């Protein structure tokens, strides 16, 4: 949905540019100028709510990212043990095992913070029920302690971030409504008004149709930058003068990463998480208010991460 909204906003930007380039002609059509004024207002509303819905006003540090990854890794250890137990007890099942759904690393990575803690808590409850049999099966106390520690640290950290999470949820709902209102306005009003030019001025109408196309970014195109990181240090991707409307697209394989903008080439001041196999599309102002350096850092220093960065000028 994030990329859908961003692609739609990009389309609206092209439509607004089309109006500016043909303002003298379009303003002669009765009421059409007001449609483009209304379009700008609806676009601004969607942009504001969308920005709020994806902003990390509480910051997203490498420490928090590593806490999350540790919890995810521990969840995999416990869930694998429970899956094995369920298979060995298929003729004498434990009732609670019937509803257990084991998630892989990719599925865990896409959970929001609250849902991940809820999943881990449910996994903890099931582990307590099955603990004697899990230990007989080979689960070590050290693995149990590691899981409990990771869950505790994440649960303690969560309340500090809950307020901003709730704000993002509300903004997400508002952005969905703003998106629906904007789409309805363009389809039912602006498109209908512009249809009057289809026969009278076909070239102008074709320009409008081209501007109206919602074109998703093709991540198969040549990346602006790509590389491999094999340690936990901060890596400078490039230095470029800050532009709040510049789009940056990020894709990583092999592990999770923290990336973002920095005022210096060795520190990420405004950071964002990106998970393995995730394709993130974001505008600079949604990363942070400044920073001429684009940087990346591996969450797990032991993993080799291949990254790709696409930079689109505003």
Count the beta strands.
8
Instruction: Please state the average pLDDT score.
Output: 87
Report strand order across the widest sheet: 1-8-3-6
- Determine the N-to-C terminus distance: 21 Å
Order of helices and strands: HHHHHHHHHEEEEEEEE
**Backbone CA Rg:** 24 Å
Given the helix and strand composition, which structural class is it?
A: alpha+beta
Question: How many distinct helices?
Answer: 9
Q: Please give the share of residues in helix.
A: 40-55%
Describe the main β-sheet briefly. Answer: 4 strands, antiparallel
Spans of 5+ residues with little confidence (pLDDT < 50)?
Answer: none
Estimated share of beta-strand residues: 5-15%
Net shape: elongated
Question: How would you describe this structure to a colleague?
Answer:
- The protein has 314 residues and is of the alpha+beta class.
- It contains 9 helices and 8 strands.
- The chain has a 4-stranded antiparallel sheet. It has a 4-stranded antiparallel sheet with strand order 2-7-4-5, with no helix packed on it.
- Strand 4 and strand 5 (270-274) form a beta hairpin.
- The longest helix has 54 residues, at 141-194.
- The protein starts with a helix and ends with a strand.
- The relative contact order is 0.14.
- The model has no long low-confidence stretch (mean pLDDT 87).
Any key phrases for this structure?
314 residues, alpha+beta, four-stranded antiparallel beta sheet, 9 helices, 15% strand
